[in-house]
Amino acid sequence: MKSAQSRIKSISNAKYGYLFALPFVIAYLIFHFYPTIYTTVLGFTDCQGLNNTEWHLLKGNLFENFQRILTNKSFINSVKNTVIIWIMNFIPQITLAMLLTAWFTARRITVKGQGFFKVIFYMPNIITAATIAILFHALFAYPTGPVNDLLVRNGIIEASYNFYVKKVAAKILVAFIQFWTWYGYTMIILISGVLGISPDIYEAADIDGANGMQIFFRITIPNLKTVLLYTLVTSLIGGLNMFDIPKLFLNGGPDNSTKTASVFIYEQAFAGKYLYNRAAAASMLMFVVIAICSAILFYLMRDKDAAALAKLKKQERKAAKKRGTGLQGGF
Amino acid sequence: MSKTTYDEPKSAKGPLYYAYKVFQYVFLLILAAISVMPFVIMIVNSTRNTSQIESHAVSLIPSHYLLQNFKILGGKAFNPWVGFMNSVIVSAGATICTVYFSTMTAYAIVAYDWKLKKPFFTFIMCVLMIPAQVTSIGMYQFMYSIGMTNKLIALILPAIAAPSTVFFMRQYMYSSLPMEILQSARIDGAGEFRIFNQIALPMMKPAMATQAIFAFVSSWNNLFLPLILLTDKAKFTMPIMVSQLNGDIYKTEYGAVYLGLLLTVLPLFVIYFLLSKYIIAGVALGGVKE
Prior knowledge:
The complex is a heterodimer of chains A (331) and B (290). Chain A is 74% helix and 0% strand. Chain A has helices at residues 4-42, 64-70, 73-105, 114-126, 129-139, 146-153, 167-195, 199-207, 212-223, 225-240, 244-250, 261-270, 276-301, 304-323, 326-329. The relative contact order of chain A is 0.12. Chain B is mainly α and 290 residues long. Chain B has helices at residues 3-7, 15-45, 50-55, 66-75, 80-111, 117-127, 136-145, 153-156, 163-176, 179-187, 192-203, 205-221, 224-229, 238-243, 254-287.
């Protein structure tokens, strides 16, 4: 057990623990926590108009902003768009990432130049999303953009196609850009997940005579479950906040078909009538959804062994308490 | 990919095996081309003028209009130097804040015993995923009321609290910060701040470098917060400058638009091709939180 001296030392050291954590706590309270509370409060006020800082809590119906937002067709539509675009990006993204992971981690038929391919596939992820949105806007331009140029010159289509006036085409393009920026990232996460699986399991499978397909579907995928769920949830949270690409690619158009929830919130607050209160209410609704997703992720990623150990200790303590307090003092 | 080819054992390298191999590499090369082509077109077209691009938008042969495009670009709303300098100030400032203070926070968790340590770390885990975007309205109102809009410092100071970096640094510290060294420094009479700055910090260098790259890139690429906080043209960061390239004033200046895009990502290309190995290793590390 600790002597009196070391006890004093650890107590005096505790002071430094608080001291070193202080900058983080202060910055968090000012720049993250306070704005969160502020946003929540604004959702219940009449705060509107450019740079208006005078506001009052709503009299009468306190939840008016939330009700207005939930019945706002444009908001409902933007949430739908967000989910549709996210799904259209995520399904091909995870499929392709899985295929590449299977190839790059296969032990019988190895792929050469993996380092090169990884560097290339990941590259779009590091480039500014704003730049990518405008770059793709230029690439798919009508009538003389590079994509139309390629398609017409190679005789795939007869005349240039205007991607920017068709609702479905615009949605698919936004989803494609998202897919194109993120599949490399997902692939690297999955590969590192596979490399984390114990080689013993694979050896056992080899000895049992399993083939490549069996190994992938019966061993790799079940062992990758947590990583896959991690990818799903982080991608969902990111997708719910999709802003840069839909905003800059077609500014939410044509006919609001690529307007996402974040673009909607931005337009409510920083354009037109500057409806800060409505935007705040919409933000809070999104916040709740994201918090739920985070909670799921937190639950999935928790340290299972530590949690089990803590539970065991708690039970022991309870049992000890039942037996009487005399025992604890004995040590 | 058919079932039979995938299962092909190594011993029997029949024609099926080679067909599978060829298919695999062709697929990978096409994918690589799709990833690279937009950037190649961007680079080549930044050297061509409008009429060249209009007649053939895709070409792999650079032309000689780079300087002219640069003049067109600078003659209008786009001021690459101002944007570049602002972005450098914000990104460098935010990176230093994120890395230094996150390491400090992680050190507080790893090196000391204090009562609220556990709840504090649980809290960090909880807010790890919450994006800045959902609280932006309150952020804007708050910054406006204290007169911080149009100040670059408003984009730097929030970086002091970076939960995900703290999380990463804590993981790294647990495995590679020997407590005995800190203890012996203590016995030698070094103060706690000196121990942190002169002993712990240098030992964390590899992890700090990885996190610095990510902090820098994500700050450089940030559009949302600068877009709502900055309205003064002289304070615009690169991503906001880029968003202006979609405007009407550049409608027919194709070459200039491509050049503007190229200028915004040039630093990223340099960083990426110098450090891609570390970046990819860093991504892989961040994903496996088990």
